[in-house]
TrEMBL record:
Gene3D superfamilies membership: Winged helix-like DNA-binding domain superfamily/Winged helix DNA-binding domain
Residue span, HTH hxlR-type domain: 12-109
Keyword terms: DNA-binding, Transcription, Transcription regulation
Annotated source species: Amycolatopsis coloradensis
UniProt-listed Pfam families: HxlR
UniProt-recorded Gene Ontology molecular function terms: DNA binding
Record protein name field: Transcriptional regulator
Organism lineage: Bacteria, Bacillati, Actinomycetota, Actinomycetes, Pseudonocardiales
C-alpha cells in the first residue's frame, strides 16, 4: 500500500487545509452537517457512502477538530456529530464550492438545490475576495509571499 503524503507541516495554508478536509467525502459530510445532519445513519443514507469509509472520514474530521461527538439531542443512547467553531468556519468554503459548481456544472434551466437567506428566502450574492481597502481582487491582483525556509 502506498503511504499517504501528509502536509501537516507544510508552510502553505492550502496544503494544510487539504490535509484535513480535502477529500470529497469529508467536504460532503461537512456540507450535510451544515444542512442539519447529525447522526451516522443519516450521513450514510444521504451520501450513500460505505460505512467503513464514512466511519474513517468522521473519525478524521473529529480528530482535526472540525466535528465534535456529542450525546444525542433526543436523550437516546446514540451519539451525534456537530460542527465545531473550526467546522463552522468552513461555511464560506462550502458556499464558494456551491457557487462555483452552479456557474460551471449546470445549464441555465437545469434544476438544482439552492442556498437562500433564511430571513428573506433570497439567494445569496456571489462571494468575492476583497482587499483591505474594499476593492474586489482576483488572481492577477494577488501574490503569495512564501514563508522563509528554516
Amino acid at each position: 500500500m502506498v503511504k499517504r503524503t501528509t502536509f501537516d507541516e507544510a508552510s502553505c495554508p492550502v496544503a494544510r487545509s487539504v490535509d484535513s478536509i480535502g477529500d470529497w467525502w469529508s467536504l460532503l459530510i461537512v456540507r450535510d452537517a451544515f444542512d442539519g445532519v447529525r447522526r451516522f445513519g443519516e450521513f450514510q443514507r444521504g451520501l450513500g457512502v460505505a460505512k467503513n469509509i464514512l466511519s474513517a472520514r468522521l473519525r478524521a474530521l473529529v480528530g482535526h477538530g472540525v466535528l465534535d461527538v456529542v450525546p444525542a439531542s433526543d436523550g437516546s443512547s446514540y451519539s451525534e456529530y456537530v460542527l465545531t467553531a473550526k467546522g463552522r468556519d468552513l461555511f464560506p468554503v462550502i458556499v464558494a464550492l456551491r457557487q462555483w459548481g452552479e456557474a460551471h456544472f449546470f445549464g441555465a434551466d437545469e434544476p438544482r438545490s439552492a442556498l437562500v437567506d433564511r430571513a428573506d428566502q433570497r439567494p445569496l450574492p456571489a462571494l468575492a475576495v476583497h482587499a483591505a481597502d474594499g476593492r474586489v481582487v482576483g488572481p492577477d491582483d494577488t501574490v503569495v509571499v512564501k514563508a522563509p525556509i528554516s
